[in-house]
Amino acid sequence: MRDMPIGVFDSGLGGLTCVKKLRKILPNENIIYFGDTGRVPYGNRSNETIKKYAYQDASFLKSKNVKAIIAACGTVSSVATELESDLDVFYTGVLKPTATKAVSYTKNGKIAVLGTSATIRSGSYEREIKTINPDIEVIVQDCPLFVPLVENGFTNKDNEITKLTVEHYLKNIKFLGADTVILGCTHYPIIKAIIGEYLGMEVKLIDSGSATAYHCADYLREHDLLNSSGVPGKTEYYVSDTEESFRKLAGIFLKEKLGENVFHIDISQFKKITN
Fold first, then answer.
1. I need a surface site. Which of 12, 91, 106, 236 has the fewest CB within 10 A?
2. Residues noted as catalytic
3. What is the mean pLDDT of each run of 10 residues along the chain (275 residues)?
4. Is 164 exposed, middle or buried (0-12, 13-18, 19+ CB in 10 A)?
5. What residues does 142 pair with on adjacent strands?
6. Verdict on whether the full-model pTM lies above 0.85
7. Is the preceding omega at residue 41 within 30 degrees of 0, hence cis?
């Protein structure tokens, strides 16, 4: 199993933040990434639809014989909680690794959670944080415009539209004085510079994609599942919409040019998980 790839999925581009960190800390691992660009965003969908999409995404990755699956999506991690028990390979969402890291960082006991509407509606981060430390004050804020801003390339730190949107969503968090802020959707770290500038240097921003990448790496290491080939790993990207638009934006986020390793698939053909 060591030489099998790691599978990562997200509703679109956000999961690339997790892929980027995986490639840095596990350079010998092969990675299969699926971005459901044809159905992004997930955060404003019903729970039933989110679960359906999550199972199709995981089913596709299973078809690629992966040794681990990461749901690099805060919405899926919060809503499709049954997915873990239905898989016969290591699976993690972003919820537990991110909440654990945030609790370890806070000094004043105030943690803010930014997420999609579905993530915030689920109350998942509050429950997870309170399980770890019931004395933590949790402030939540849904940010439904962040994903479309990222997916459409409004990511420059000087972009006035994104800066105004950040101020609109985060002014209450700034007022209430959270010293630790969870970027509860993997799209959000792409505008981390804008968020950080608004909240101030003293506020710690927790990148859910990065925290989850380290969590996966720890598991593979502890279970002797790290790639032992000694050869630099390769990454393949699959999308449910056009390859060219993904290739263009993903190249900016990954800071490299993507070549012929981007492929289109019909995600609707993957109906159920086969273990």
1. 236
2. 73, 185
3. 96 94 97 96 93 97 97 95 94 97 98 95 96 98 94 93 98 96 94 97 96 98 94 97 92 86 96 74
4. exposed
5. 115
6. yes
7. yes
